[in-house]
Design a protein that fits this description.
heterodimer; A: about 120 residues; mainly alpha; Protocatechuate 4,5-dioxygenase, Chain A; 7 helices; B: about 280 residues; alpha/beta; Protocatechuate 4,5-dioxygenase, Chain B; 8-stranded mixed beta sheet
Chain lengths: ~120, ~280
């Protein structure tokens, strides 16, 4: 049920600009209405993409959240890999890493002198 | 017959949002040219409304109340929900077709239970197709979502029935209607495996889709799709629904697995409209 609460918070945040403003102003206030563990609360408060990925947040929800946080694409992919390295395999859901950490997309823009945004 | 066009296309957010990161610009531009051709083909039919059968990406529904199928019947839709700079599509309002959409719902629900919404929000799954097919947002749009994210998922046999029900509903109306199904084939979006594409699996599926091979299309099993085509493969539901609506064989106008930065095999196809 707790993962459900994490995802519901992110679902609401992703699609509600008023809630985004509340979250920007006071993260604890925005999170107060959700039944979260300390680990989940910290992950959301810090924008810890790697941990949220490992917790099992649906990839579409997490991707939209990363876009909201304006995390660059390759940084976002690496954050998920780092999360698996640090916390272990994805614990729930259908978005597990199956490629062993292999890079399937092209060269990160940092290696080409480009910015994502 | 009021269904005047049926086709499919990809919708991955990288198609617009990461266009500048493409290494193979010639392939990217050929894909964009195919999408422009699709826009012109739809325009040439005189379509008065565009139905976009897409995959729910948690823009409208959550697991507290997740419909298998939903039609947007509002007089306007909003989108994208994502950061505009990330998707490279500005936030806007898209005209709906409330009267027509409501008539379609009434017809479809004679055979398939559908939900409806007057407060539709579009994410990349609909905004990317609209960016190419009606870039001025001057064509009324009826968004349709199939739950492809939150299992349990609607069975493929039911998806086929839904496509047939949409076709029947369109045929009952006087307006000229175009339908596109938009979803990925094999892909592992929003995971560290983003960019992985099973081209052989894609081509096999697309061949069956173009041939209207109903038996093979409905024989896919989610567990096998997940293993061979990733969780993104569940979106074949949107493509199968479009094929069922069209009834005619398809023409695969574009496919490439050479744009992994888009995280999907990029696809454009058109179906014949058959009785």
């Amino acid at each position: 049920m707790s993962l459900y609460q994490v995802q519901k918070f992110l679902y609401n945040l992703n699609r509600d600009e008023q809630m985004q403003q509340v979250f920007a102003d006071n993260k604890n206030k925005a999170l107060a209405n959700y039944d979260l563990t300390d680990e989940e609360h910290a992950a959301l408060e810090l924008g810890d993409i790697g941990l949220l990925y490992v917790l099992g947040v649906n990839g579409q929800i997490l991707m939209h959240y990363a876009a909201y946080l304006q995390i660059e694409w390759f940084d976002y992919l690496q954050a998920m890999r780092d999360g698996v390295d640090k916390h272990g395999p994805v614990r729930a859901g259908i978005y597990a890493m199956t490629g062993g950490g292999k890079l399937f997309a092209q060269t990160p823009p940092s290696d080409k002198g480009e910015s994502f945004q | 017959m009021s269904l005047v066009y049926a086709g499919i296309l990809s919708h991955a957010p990288g198609i617009t949002g990461r266009a500048h990161l493409v290494d193979n610009e010639a392939v990217r531009d050929a894909f964009y040219a195919s999408l422009e051709k699709q826009r012109l083909e739809i325009e040439a039919t005189g379509a008065e409304a565009l139905i976009v059968i897409a995959a729910e990406h948690f823009a409208n529904f959550f697991m507290d109340n997740m419909p298998a199928y939903c039609l947007g019947i509002g007089d306007k839709h909003k989108g994208p929900i994502e950061d505009s700079e990330w998707l490279k599509i500005a936030k806007t309002e898209i005209p709906g077709a409330p009267d027509l959409a409501t008539r379609l719902v009434n017809s479809v629900m004679q055979t398939v239970d559908v939900a409806y919404s007057e407060e539709w929000q579009c994410d990349h799954g609909i905004m990317v197709p609209l960016n190419f097919l009606t870039p001025s947002y001057d064509l009324p749009v009826i968004p349709v979502n199939i739950n492809c994210q939150g299992p349990p998922l609607t069975p493929l046999s039911r998806v086929w029935q839904f496509g047939e029900a949409l076709r029947k509903a369109c045929d009952e109306e006087a307006e000229k209607i175009a339908i596109v199904g938009t979803g990925g084939i094999s892909h592992w979006p929003a995971t560290p495996d983003s960019g992985k594409i099973n081209e052989a699996w894609d081509r096999s599926f697309l061949d069956q889709l173009m041939q209207q091979d109903k038996d093979k299309l409905l024989s896919y099993i989610d567990e096998e799709v997940y293993a061979q085509a990733g969780q993104g493969g569940f979106e074949i539901r949107t493509l199968i629904a479009a094929a069922a609506a069209a009834k005619g064989k398809g023409d695969l106008q574009f496919y490439t697995a050479e744009l992994p930065i888009f995280a999907v095999g990029c696809t454009v196809a058109r179906f014949d409209i058959s009785v």
